[in-house]
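Entry, Tuesday afternoon. Goal for today is a structural model of the target with zinc ion bound, before we commit to ordering more compound. Inputs were pasted exactly as handed over by J.K., no edits. I checked the ligand SMILES twice against the vendor sheet because last time a stereocentre got dropped in transcription.
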Amino acid sequence: MALAVDAGTGLPPLSVRAFGRGLKKLVVLMTHYHHDHTQGITMAAHTFAGEEVTMFGPEDHGIGPKQVMERLMVEPLFPVNFEKLAHRFKCKPMKNIGTEVLIIHPTEGVHKIQVSEYNKAQAPGSNGRVCNGKCLLLECLVVLMYRTTHPEQTISYRFIEMPSGKTFVFLTDHESTAALPADLRSHVAGTDLLIADGQYAQKVYEERTAGFGHATPEYCALLAHRTGVKRLGITHHDPNASDEDVDARVAEAKAEAVRLGNQELADNTFGCACYQEIEI
Ligand SMILES: [Zn+2]
Ligand SMILES: [Zn+2]
């Protein structure tokens, strides 16, 4: 099974590589459905030749992964209408972000359970099993969710690899908030790697782009500093940005970390590049 977050330009090469390794099942966790997060699905190898694509994503006002695929894959924008491929797509809408947890088991597949069941399985004296006893937490990849601040309903995913306990949070399409909400802080807390949306320079944000649903590098650094994040990657670069612009955003995040007295965070802050591979 290959796992992807969103279906942007990274998905087609990931899909080809997964096929090369014999991974025919693809699971895609959608943050939301703005074009910059969906277009790769129309070009991914799994869409045309795979055995099964399972797509999780938010559902808002009756629009979830299935309705979005129907709108993306429609003639003349796509060679066939979605209904011709629908038998290979499992679309799993998520309506209660923050109350559910995804449990990804190497052989039992992906299950959606309640946070209460997850918490119970972690309590002392529990046998650590979830999904009607099918999955032992210690063998799973656990995925927690947080609803970001964005014009559309958008999910940030926190991955916990068991049994190593290594964590990764993908927080994109999230706007700077005046304070750091407690549930956001616990979602990000102590993570080994945080990839966060730092699209806009502070001045641009204040003058033109507040309310667009994206954050500043300074906000990313503050959040990472306050929550004990170990490594911070700045992403969701502005489509009109040059390499120098991206370098400037990363420098702003580093400068903020230094200003906060966190040299270690500054040293471990970087700009995300296309097709970059990061070991956690
Ligand atoms: Zn968006
Ligand atoms: Zn976006």
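The mean pLDDT is 96.
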